Amino acid sequence: MITLIALVAGLLFGGGLLLSGMVDPQRVLGFLDVAGHWNPALALTMGGAVAVAAPAFFYVRRHGRTLLGTSVTLPDRFRIDASLLGGSAIFGLGWGLSGICPGPGLLLLTGGSSQSLVFVAGMVAGFYALAAVRRRPRTVAADPPAT
Fold this sequence. Notes:
The chain is built from six helices and no strands. By secondary structure, it is mainly α.
């Protein structure tokens, strides 16, 4: 049942991206061009997505589980750390340079364009790089010797 729900959610997400035109990198770059010919379509699309998703998040936040009873642990909304800042910066840089977000990138991959192939390859490389960084043993700085 969970796999079926994930499939339906993915199809709805992809359909929404296609319907809204958010798979077009030029439309997304138009949203980011606040000093030029700004296109508010992405803001309206995000607003619609938030309105649809908000009830589910409120339910999960209150009950700590999904409607099917799967336990959910949400991240701390107030903790800002190096991982969050670094990930946000890398995400924003990639999005701003390419005009492609991961969801539309995967959808564009179905069309076989070279831009989407390069984007998704870079995204997958980033996943592996993160996994490698997280596997590295952390070293703790030794206290300086007492004098």
